[in-house]
Write a structure and sequence with these properties.
This protein has 13 helices and 18 strands. The protein is of the alpha+beta class. It is globular, with a radius of gyration of 21 Å.
Length: 406
């Protein structure tokens, strides 16, 4: 297992439930998969030659990870060098590297915002005539780290400097800002063929210049036509790169007024915040993590037959954050955990806790994972949960404020 974070927990538990011997490679830290492992090597996952040496010595049968972009190139590197089931490094990089992905999208006619690669703090020639706002992001980061929306030259220079610092490759991407609602498109590639498993709507916190999701809800309410456009884009990329197998998590922007779409990214890994491990099985009836594990071990499975039994369900994750200050009261957590439709409730908030201003995804509270009969049922349950949970925070001026859901 490459990585030991929260995103690797579900598939690590699955491996342990099957009786497999689990070796985890991770940097030191308080990471949950460390306790699940039979053996741990404390190695930076980006030191790929060292990770490969360990894999050879241990005579591993499979290498895997999930729900994290940063792990996947190392997974591919090890699999490719040891001739294990998996994808090549170049195939994974074609998805995970934002600039390479956009270049391939241009080749295939997949709609992406106008974009360019930037290696230094300057305004690229291609953007000198393009009006603001622009989006600036590292080409190889995740969790919205280093991502900014800029409205002026002054903001751009600060943003591009920050994005370059957040990139291990020392490269950033600048692109046009596209107005639209975000959806996530979840699929599975099996023997080079793309199978769509579900599409969800995503909501964001209303924060200036910070892009952090608050909810992801299956199924989406977008039109069937737009859904089909997105699926066809995923099929085109799959046919072009031809991965052997993978969970695929993609994000699109949809302008409801014009019907236009733009792809934000597509990665060969499951969606984070338990999308692949929890939300998808409830939404489509397939435990996709189990099939990812099978494929990594070379276990043959008839995925096409399984796909024919796809069901229509509903699920969502809900996150929130707290204003800056000191927590004064917490009510409703145990009530929420007791609800039959709540499958996970990761809320760590106690009286006396100091809260800080939220600047990246990892500072969200939650998720609360729920299931429902359909979209209307899910919306009702989200409202019920928001009405049942109360957390009060006192700021430095003595004002009391509550949970921020949106």
């Amino acid at each position: 297992m490459i990585g030991a974070g929260i995103g690797q927990v579900p598939i690590s538990l699955l491996a342990k439930d099957r009786g497999y011997y689990l070796i985890v490679v991770t940097i030191p830290g308080d990471y949950p998969c460390i306790e699940l492992a039979d053996k741990v090597y404390y190695v930076d996952i980006f030191k790929r030659e060292e990770v490969l040496r360990i894999a050879k010595e241990e005579k591993i049968d499979a290498v895997i990870s999930d729900q994290n972009d940063l792990m996947m190139p190392t997974v591919a590197y090890v699999a490719e060098h040891l001739s294990l089931p998996g994808n090549t490094f170049s195939q994974v990089d074609a998805y995970c590297n934002k600039n390479i992905f956009r270049q391939n999208s241009d080749i295939l006619g997949i709609p992406v915002p106008k974009h360019t690669r930037v290696l230094e703090v300057r305004i690229p020639d291609e953007f000198k005539e393009i009006p603001f706002p622009w989006m600036v992001k590292p080409e190889d980061s995740q969790s919205s780290i280093g991502v900014s929306k800029v409205n002026s030259t002054e903001e751009y220079f600060a943003a591009i400097e920050h994005a370059l610092k957040c990139s291990r490759n020392g490269a950033a991407i600048v692109e046009e800002f596209f107005v639209g609602d975000e959806i996530v498109v979840e699929g599975f590639i099996y023997k080079g063929e793309y199978f769509n498993l579900g599409i969800a709507d995503r909501r964001y916190f209303n924060l200036p210049n910070i892009f952090i999701p608050s909810q992801t809800i299956f199924p989406s309410t977008i039109s069937d036509d737009i859904k089909q456009q997105c699926i066809e884009c995923e099929q085109k990329m799959c046919q072009y790169i031809n991965p052997r197998f993978a969970i695929v998590h993609a994000e699109y922007l949809v302008n409801q007024a014009t019907g236009e779409i733009r792809i934000v990214e597509s990665a060969l890994r499951g969606g984070g915040v338990y999308i692949s491990s929890h939300l998808l099985p409830m939404a489509c009836g397939i435990n996709i993590s189990s099939y990812l594990l099978d494929c990594s071990l070379g276990i043959e499975t008839d995925f096409k037959e399984l796909y024919s039994s796809l069901k229509e369900g509903a699920s969502a994750y809900i996150c929130f954050y707290l204003p800056k200050g000191i927590v004064k009261s917490v009510e409703g957590i145990e009530l929420i955990k007791s609800l039959f439709y709540v499958h996970k409730c990761d809320i760590d908030a106690s009286v006396g806790d100091e809260t800080k201003q939220m600047t990246y995804k990892g500072q969200r509270l939650g998720p609360i994972i729920i299931s429902g009969k359909d979209r209307n049922d899910i919306e009702d349950k989200i409202h019920s949960i928001q009405s049942s949970l109360t957390i009060e925070v006192e700021n430095s001026e003595g004002d009391i404020n509550g949970i921020i859901w949106n």
